[in-house]
Amino acid sequence: MAVTAIVAAGCHDHNEVPDMDEGVYLGKGDVAILNYAYALEQLEAAFYTKVTETPYGDISDLEKSLLTDIRDHEIAHREFFKAALQGNAIVNLEVDFSSVNFSSRESVLTTAKAFEDLGVSAYNGAGQLIEKPDYLLLAGKIVSVEARHAGLISDLIQNGSFAGSDVVDMNGLEKSMSPSQVLTAAAPFIKTKINARDLPTY
Amino acid sequence: MNIFKIVTDIEHLDIDIHERLNPRRAAIKALNSFGAKVVLSALPFTVASMFNKAYGQTIPQKIIDVLNFALTLEYLEAEFYTKALASNGLIGDTAARNAITVIKNHEDEHVTFLKAALGNQAVAKPTFDFTAGGTFGDVFSNYDTFLAVANAFEDTGVRAYKGQAGNLMENDDILRYALNIHSVEARHASHIRQMRRARGGAAANLKPWITGANDTGVSAVDPVYAGEDNKIQAGADITSFNGVSGKLSANVATEAFDEALSKEAVLEIAGLFIVN
Questions:
Q1: Is A147 on the interface with B (CB under 8 A)?
Q2: R_g of chain A computed on alpha carbons
Q3: Which of A154, B55, B183, B245 fits as disulfide partner to A147, beta carbons 3.0 to 4.6 Å?
Q4: What is the pLDDT along chain A (202 residues), one digit of tens a residue?
Q5: Which residues make beta-bridge pairs with B86?
Q6: Which value does ipTM take for this structure?
Q7: Going along chain B, which residue ranges are E strands?
Q8: Distance from CA of A61 to the nearest CA of B (A)
Q9: Which of A142, A161, A170, A180 is the best mutation test for B, with the most CBs of B within 10 A?
Q10: CB A2 to CB B235 under 8 A?
């Protein structure tokens, strides 16, 4: 299988960084953006894997099936980024879900909503930082699937809340977050320290 | 000249610009918890029209074309939901009316936003025929037909915005606004698909995401889903990757990535509903 490699430029950077002990280095430019997306997909895939391994007690067949689909979509995204980044891909991150009660439907769905909304706002906010049109298109292909997830999860919590005022403003625009904002929001769930020193942001 | 950039620049120079450009400062302030970027995005329809008047500004033609293309689709959706909500007996259920109202309001907001950004270069609203020349003759009297057309419109909208992102790369703010509309359309699509699933029948197994190509049970909308069954991304066959047990399925591979649609293909679909 020939995966289109995601830029060769900068592929040695992570060997030249003097402060590797500061954490997992994402790289710079588009590599960093794609590693950033890879990190978020790792987080989501790990979460839904755990959700489907230890489903909450009153889970319906339909919810189990939908959450399994989402798990597989996140795995597809994660594996795609890993393959595309090749030697530039960051390591597997260690996650921390100690704040989640996996036996509670409310806890699981609330966390899922937070991850999905965060994922959408992350891709929405990172689009303008991507340099290569092909990668922007790939991000676009993924973000709308994350938004479909987000709509569903919100509806599972409260039917009809698929695009609520917590995520969509008065111009009908969804929230965007910069990479630095997103990494701050995701930090409690990621044990591995991430070095985002050269990650484009604003 | 980049109008959104100018607004951003002026904001840095003039911290009172919000107050002077927008009388609803209280409303804007209430949004502060949403983050500075969103506060800014709450303004452009006021600001853009003011800048049109003040500077007679010129947005690059390539971007105008994309925004007018988007505006045409938003006109289509906004009028579609407005007419549906006004059709007696079409949407009887309260939860359904609420959901369609949420979607209709977003489409109205997108129209307002895009028209303001375009100023006097905005295209006029076309005349629509939501029956598509009789293909969906009962669209405003049969709830299932209405939902089927809504399903097609939302999925088309997602594909249309996705296809144009690359044409907006020279302008960070406009690209971000377009992406921020794109994901809202995807949330709409997710919900409409769930509404259809709840109706059973041809849509009994419909998911919030697109499985394969046309999964809607309505063959008349095949062009909306052309190419959605793609399993190869950037040269990688998604079904070659390991899942939890065995390789990822073809269904997962197609669901996990939404595909773009060219402007020409979208206009061909929209054209079925446009009289002039």
A1: yes
A2: 17
A3: B183
A4: 445 555 444 444 444 444 545 899 999 999 999 999 999 999 999 999 999 999 999 899 999 999 999 999 999 999 999 999 999 999 999 999 999 999 999 999 999 999 999 999 999 999 999 999 999 999 999 999 999 999 999 999 999 999 999 999 999 999 999 999 999 999 999 999 999 999 999 9
A5: none
A6: 0.92
A7: 232-233, 236-237
A8: 13
A9: A170
A10: yes
pLDDT, one tens digit per residue, over B28-55 is: 333 333 343 444 444 555 545 443 443 3
Q: How far apart are CA B32 and CA B25, in angstroms?
A: 11
Instruction: State which amino acid sits at residue A179.
Output: P
Q: How far is CA B179 from CA A100, A122, A123, B4, B175, in A?
A: 30, 11, 9, 15, 6
Give how far Cα A21 sits from Cα of A15, A136, A174, B28, B113, Å: 12, 31, 37, 43, 47
Residue with token string 């929405």:
A124
Residue from B224, B231, B237, B187 nearest B209 by CA:
B187
Q: Exposed/middle/buried for A11, CB within 10 Å: 0-12, 13-18, 19+?
A: middle
CA-wise closest residue to B145 among B90, B105, B209, B68: B90
What's the gap in Å between the CA of B185 and the closest CA on chain A?
Answer: 8
Q: What are phi and psi of A95, to 5 degrees?
A: -100, 165
Closest CA relative to residue A178, chosen from A9, A36, A31, A54 = A36
Task: Say if the Cβ atoms of B241 and A80 lie within 8 Å.
Answer: yes
| pTM strictly above 0.90 | no
What angle is formed at CA B107 by the lines to CA B106 and CA B109, rounded to 5 degrees? Answer: 65
Alpha helices in chain A (DSSP H): 13-16, 29-53, 61-85, 105-126, 133-157, 179-186
> Three-class SS of residue A190?
strand
The minimum CA-CA distance between B254 and chain A, rounded to whole Å, is: 9
CA distance B163 to B229: 16
Angle, helix B94-118 to helix B143-164, in steps of 10 degrees: 30
Dihedral sign (CA B84, B88, B91, B93): positive
Measuring CA to CA, which residue among A179, A186, A14, A17 is closest to residue A90? A14
> Which of A49, A76, A174 faces B180 most closely, judged by CB atoms?
A174
